[in-house]
């Protein structure tokens, strides 16, 4: 059964919002998003992103802070799957690095989508954005934002409740010290698909 995710639970502010689980307490699903990247100029050292953990929802349906990854069916249902992941920040203590991906909902297992900065409903188009050094509460901009403009996302397996795949590409990172080329290699995602509702 797909866990229903209320719209306000998606917000990374992690503020309390009305739950859909009847206040039965946290639910847990194991999931992961991983990739590696070389240094992006002087604004980001080389490293690896690894958000491996359980999606946690509190008794009021709010998304709890920590390291996790999940997918969400977009609106209208099946149009897009949004994959979101969080790990403890590699560049700022006490903050988080967040990945946001959009994968076309009609891409079958074995199918590939091209990466772009903005898709605007284009067929077989996917997006990957990385925000580094985000706070989990409050409206605070990340210290570094990276967007992939070239590359591919491949769906290796999918069902009504789970999606798995790979991704790699290149783009640009933006930070207070300027802009720099960015590259992602060996990307993988394996997440449960939650229903927006």
User: How would the global form be characterised?
Assistant: globular
The count of DSSP E runs of length 2 or more, i.e. the number of strands, is 11
Q: What share of the residues lie within helices?
A: under 10%
Q: What gap, in angstroms, lies between the N and C termini?
A: 14 Å
Class inferred from helices and paired strands:
mainly beta
- State the low-pLDDT regions, or none: 1-29
- Assembly state here? single chain
How many strands, which pairing sense, and closed or not: the largest β-sheet?
11 strands, mixed
By DSSP (H or I, 4+ residues per run), the number of helices equals: 0
Total discrete domains: 1
Rounded mean pLDDT score? 78
Order of helices and strands, N to C? EEEEEEEEEEE
Provide the gyration radius in Å. Answer: 16 Å
């Amino acid at each position: 059964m797909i866990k229903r995710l209320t719209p306000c639970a998606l917000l990374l502010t992690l503020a309390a919002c009305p739950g859909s689980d009847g206040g039965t307490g946290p639910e847990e699903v194991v999931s992961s998003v991983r990739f590696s990247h070389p240094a992006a100029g002087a604004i980001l050292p080389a490293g690896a992103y690894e958000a491996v953990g359980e999606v946690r929802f509190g008794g009021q349906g709010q998304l709890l802070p920590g390291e996790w990854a999940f997918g969400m069916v977009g609106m209208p249902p099946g149009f897009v799957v949004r994959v979101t992941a969080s790990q403890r920040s590699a560049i700022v203590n006490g903050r988080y690095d967040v990945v946001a991906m959009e994968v076309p909902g009609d891409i079958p297992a074995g199918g590939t989508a091209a990466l772009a900065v903005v898709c605007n409903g284009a067929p077989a188009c996917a997006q990957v954005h990385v925000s580094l050094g985000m706070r989990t509460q409050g409206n605070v901009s990340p210290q570094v934002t990276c967007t992939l403009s070239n590359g591919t996302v491949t769906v290796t397996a999918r069902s009504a409740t789970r999606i798995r795949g790979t991704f790699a590409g290149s783009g640009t990172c933006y930070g207070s010290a300027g802009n720099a080329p960015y590259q992602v290699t060996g990307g993988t995602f394996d997440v449960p698909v939650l229903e927006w509702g």
